[in-house]
Structure formats: C-alpha cells, structure tokens
Amino acid sequence: MPGMEQEAADVMASRAVTRQALSVGLATSAYGISFGAVAVASGLTVWQTVALSALLFSGGSQFALAGVLGAGGSGAAAVATSSLLGVRNGLYGLQVARLLEVRGLRRLLAAHLTIDESTAVAIAQPSRAAQRRGFWVTGTAVFIGWNLTTLAGALLGDALGDPKAYGFDAAAAAAFAALLWPRLRSREAVGTAVLAGLVGAVLVPSAPPGVPVLVAALAAVVVGLVPRRDGPEADGPEADGLEADGPDTDGPEATTTGTPA
Fold first, then answer.
1. Residue 124 confidence (pLDDT) above 60
2. Which of 186, 24, 200 is nearest to 113 (CA)?
C-alpha cells in the first residue's frame, strides 16, 4: 500500500507540473504575435522573422534587435544590444546544468531551451524529477507556441502594409515597457530603470540607434556597485528576477505572461 500511495502521489505531482508548464507556455506564446508584427514592421521579412524566433529564441533579445533595426540602427548595434540582454541566459544555464545533468546533443538542446520561463518553473519544483519535467515541458511548449505565433504575427504585419500607418513603428518601445514593468519590485530595480531611462533620454537625440541602449546598460553596473542593505529584499527569491512559485516576466526575460527571454 505505501508503494502504491507513493506512485499515485508521483503521478499527481507529474500532472501538476505538466499543467503549470503548459499554462506558462500558452500564456507566453501569445506575445509571439506582437513580436512577429514588430519584426516585420522593423524591416525584416516574414522568413527572417521566423528564423530569428527559432534560432535566437529569447524574447527580450528579439525585441531589442527589432527595435534597433526599426529605428535605423546598424546590424552591429542591433546584435550587440540583443546579445547584452541575452547574457543572463548563460547565468541561468549554470543552475539548470546542475538540475538536468545532460550530455551531448541533449545538452545543446537544453541550452537552447534555457529561458526565464523554463528555468523558473524548474527551480520551483520540490523534487529533482519534477524539476527536470518542468524544464523540458515548459521549454518545449514555449518554443513551439512562440514560433507558431511569431509566424502568425509576421504574416499579419506583412499583410497590413506600411507599419507607420498603424503605429507599429512604436510597438517595439511599447513592448519593452510592458516587459519592464513587472520587474520593478525592488529599489534596486527601480533605481536601475530610472538611471537607464535618464541616460537613454540624454543620448537618443545625438547617438546612433542602439548606442543609447548599450550605454544605458551601464546603469545596472552603477546600481550594482552601490552597497545593499541586508534584508528581505536582498535575499528573497525575487532578487535575481525569478520567483520561487513561478516565472518572472521576458524571459529567460518572465512571469507566466512574459516572453521567452
């Protein structure tokens, strides 16, 4: 009887993880429509947009690249800005690698699926088996959904014609504002956002597109150098952008309604 009860408990836990992972995948995928439309509005073709989602697969970085290109920035500036935002995924990888313990091709696949959502769902689970299931199901669900909705958004944006006629030329900035807002949960985050905003506002009129974003990123370094007071805000699970009970927003990038980041 104890063995049967344990087996039943494991099945229920597995189903719970799967439901959570699929709900995160569904909610996150919806944002792919906006990215597809924004990317086409920025000058990318439908197939370039689809390839970007499939190969880069990081919502914040994708929006950054499309935003810089849409503002007339160079390819180098777009790639640099996008890469800067993707650095955190490498930090997630250090934690995920210990959970999954995969080798070979599965390691490469796991690296590609390491985003905010898959990492957050994984680390929120109580057992190693549940963590692994949470990672793989979430990552796979987001990848499939994100790429399908990206295609839908790109086709929609392409059919609408001139993006400026519908205000899509401002969509990238609006998308970033939506991604940023849920992250402002601590004084450090608010301070970083305010400082970066001021730096960007000063540089935008004179600097080439993409450069203000790169320079504004130094705001995070400045805020990080300020000594932090010991307390709940510094030690809680939200300190690194991930909650213990679910993913934060775009992201690696993410809450349950964020983008893959």
1. yes
2. 24
d(CA 177, CA 173): 6
Instruction: Find the helix packing angle between 128-160 and 31-41, rounded to 10°.
Output: 40
pLDDT attached to residue 166: 57
Helix ranges (DSSP H) in the chain: 2-29, 31-41, 46-55, 59-70, 75-100, 104-112, 116-123, 128-160, 171-180, 187-203, 211-216, 218-225, 232-235
Burial track 107-132 (b if 16+ CB lie within 10 A, e otherwise): eeebeebbbbbbbbbbbbbeeeebbb
Spatial distance between the Cα atoms of 133 and 153, rounded to a whole number of angstroms: 30
User: What's the pLDDT score for residue 241?
Assistant: 41
The reported pTM is 0.69
CB burial of residue 93 (10 Å; 0-12, 13-18, 19+): middle
Report the 10 Å Cβ neighbour count for 148. Answer: 16
Q: Which of 25-34, 47-56, 173-182 has the highest mean pLDDT?
A: 47-56
- Asked if residues 122 and 113 have their Cβ atoms less than 8 Å apart, the reply is no
186: exposed, middle or buried (Cβ count in 10 Å: 0-12, 13-18, 19+): middle
The angle formed by the CA atoms of residues 109, 244 and 173, to the nearest 5 degrees, is 70
Cα dist. 12→6, 7, 15 in Å?
Answer: 10, 9, 5
- Mapping DSSP to helix (H, G, I), strand (E, B) and coil, where does residue 138 land? helix
> For residue range 68-100, what is the model confidence (pLDDT) as tens digits?
887 787 888 888 878 877 888 888 898 899 889
